[in-house]
Amino acid sequence: MLKLLTASLPYIQPIERFEKMFAAYHRVLTKRPILVQSISTAALFGAGDVIAQQLVERQGWKRHDYMRTLRMTTFGGVFAGPVLSVWYRYVDRKITIKNPFQGLVAKVTLDQFVFAPFFIAAFFTGQGLFEGKSVKEIKEKLSNGYKTALIGNYKIWPAVQFINFYFTPLNYRLLVTNTVALGWNAYLSTVNNQ
Known about the structure:
Helices cover about 85% and strands about 0% of the residues. By secondary structure, it is mostly helical. The radius of gyration is 19 Å and the shape is globular.
């Protein structure tokens, strides 16, 4: 009877598959959080670059710069994933203000005015190094793109992080960030390549 009922409701099977996938993701994330978050970040940084090249810049697959996508993916997995994972844990450990709202404001303020400026500079520097640029060229890249990216950051990320720090359990914060960052990484990739 149950089989007959679920066969007539085709949307239930995808929901069940999603629940199983999420349960498996949760198990692995709980055992190896930094590794799983680094792999997820790598995949989503790469996807952000594909979005940038295909949807924003309209490169087409024949002109797609696969090395650029590889650089973004590598930066996401080797730097952004581990650093962000450790950062979120650090912020949770260090901000212990009793008043929940004040604690939330402190976390977002620290994230946006200490970490974000560092991370954006690290992004442009890392991409410059991956591209084989000289120190002078990396400084030019920072000079040309840093301020624009930081201003862009302040237009979206404070609101995202208020929601993220308030509603999202620690192990899932980077996943939320990475999901929103699909668009952000497309933006950063585009700014980096101007």
